[in-house]
Amino acid sequence: MPLSEDEQRILSEIESQLRASDPDLAEHVGSTTVYTDAVRKLRWGVVAFVASLVLTVVLLTVHFALGFVGFLAMVGSAIIIESNARRMGRAGINEATRALRSSGIRSYFNDAGERARERFRRDDEV
Question: Domain locations in the chain?
Fold first, then answer.
């Protein structure tokens, strides 16, 4: 049910008062979503999974029992990934992918490529 004109006006006044009284809080509230915490934990879970996979391979060359410890770390990080993905649900995952598309992950990598080309460009080419 949409808000009436009076309710919209009151909400706008409250927002403007919040922005005037505490701009940092208003910016923080405006930039976070319900899924922000789950996305952050999901990212750390993926990083931990990759790190524990590498650790498992390295530790397997030392001793199989140490490799098993790395495997247990991998299982733990997979559980973290699964629980946070479940917390986010389909709507949260769709929102995260939409945010990645709008922020331009492709442009991030293009900018990184351009920076690398600039770094290795000869002075006589400029």
Answer: 1-31, 36-125
